[in-house]
Amino acid sequence: MAELRGEEARHLTRVLRAEPGQLFEISDNRQAYLAEISEARGERVSFRVIEPVPSPALPARFTLCAALVKFDRFEWMIEKATELGAEAILPFEAARTEKGLLEASRKRCERWERIARESSQQSRRVTMPVILGAVRLDRALEFEADYRYFLEEGDAPSLAASLPGNRTHGDRVALLMGPEGGWTDGERRSAADGGWAAISLGPLVLRAETAAVAGLAVAVNAWM
């Protein structure tokens, strides 16, 4: 048996008019299952689990380390990164991050988790990404991964040219995306000293959220 309560249960009963006997796919954030509604009342929906449902595995473990930008655009980024298969999203403050966003982000965690959960449902992901607590850039540069890429708006090799030859599903891949104002020279040096490989997504300057989604899409496709 499984049970759903609260807002999502109300959506099922009041908006989707869910009734006993209807079949749904549900997830416990580890495995997907085919389940039949046994009871649907207000803020409570009960399911009878029938069987596990095969779920596609993500091609690798991707983390998006994203400089904080205005929250409407950052939330769009969370939504799209979730759809693309990010395992985790790490917000951070860079030198040119708009003042106040780091502190304000601490009050957005619950909302960002809800966005990731809803996007996971839409894209039929079994597990939702982890939204990590926002940090400063020096802490973000300490993030551990097998392959770490620093998205550079200046002259740098393409991401495609920088990919390892032997790629496996167990690889941990991190993409570091800068703020709206771009990187400072000191941040570039810090990233290089920390072992991050500078890569380019093309000759044009992309908005922060565009760069994040484009970079993640290229990386996910490369590991498939």
Structural commentary:
By secondary structure, the protein is α/β, with parallel strands linked by helices. It folds into two domains: 2-53, Beta Barrel (Ribosomal Protein L25, Chain P); 61-223, SPOUT methyltransferase, trefoil knot domain (Alpha/beta knot, 3-Layer(aba) Sandwich), CATH 3.40.1280.10. 33% of the residues lie in helices and 28% in strands. It has helices spanning 7-15, 71-84, 101-105, 109-122, 137-140, 159-162, 185-193, 208-223; strands at residues 2-5, 23-27, 32-41, 44-53, 61-67, 86-93, 130-131, 135-136, 147-151, 172-177, 197-199. A hairpin with a 4-residue loop joins strand 2 and strand 3 (32-41). Helix 2 (71-84) packs parallel to helix 4 (109-122) and helix 2 (71-84) packs parallel to helix 8. It is elongated, with a radius of gyration of 20 Å.
Can you describe this structure in just a few lines?
With 224 residues, the chain is α/β, with parallel strands linked by helices. It has 8 helices and 11 strands. It has 2 domains: 2-53, Hypothetical PUA domain-like, domain 1 (Ribosomal Protein L25, Chain P, Beta Barrel), CATH 2.40.240; 61-223, Alpha/beta knot, CATH 3.40.1280.
